[in-house]
Design brief:
- Keywords: Antimicrobial, Disulfide bond, Fungicide, Plant defense, Secreted, Signal.
- This is Defensin-like protein.
- It comes from Brassica campestris (Field mustard).
- It is found in: Secreted.
- By secondary structure, the chain is an alpha+beta fold.
- It has one domain.
- It is built from three helices and three strands, in the order H-E-H-H-E-E.
- Strands 1-3-2 form a three-stranded antiparallel β-sheet.
- A hairpin with a 6-residue loop joins strand 2 and strand 3.
- The chain starts with a helix and ends in a 6-residue tail after the last strand.
């Protein structure tokens, strides 16, 4: 009986750890058209700090500007 209880406790602890790690892995935000924003990298660093990275997915004319930054997503 004790062995099955300890196995259950260990499984619950692992599930809790993985759920917390996933929450703090970082965030990706879509900020709009690359054509309107211009330099996605600079805009992301201004908004989220020097650890943020920005990129234009889909080309400068029709693409979208995305920011990746550490920490949880807000809002």
């Amino acid at each position: 009986m004790a062995k099955s209880t300890s196995s259950l406790v260990v499984a619950i602890i692992y599930l809790m750890m993985f759920s917390l790690v996933e929450e703090n892995m970082g965030c990706e935000v879509d900020y709009g058209s690359c054509k309107e924003i211009g330099n996605c990298e600079v805009m992301c660093m201004v908004k989220f700090g020097s650890a943020a990275t920005g990129y234009c997915a889909g080309g400068n004319e029709t693409g979208r500007c995305y920011c990746d930054f550490p920490g949880p997503c807000i809002g």
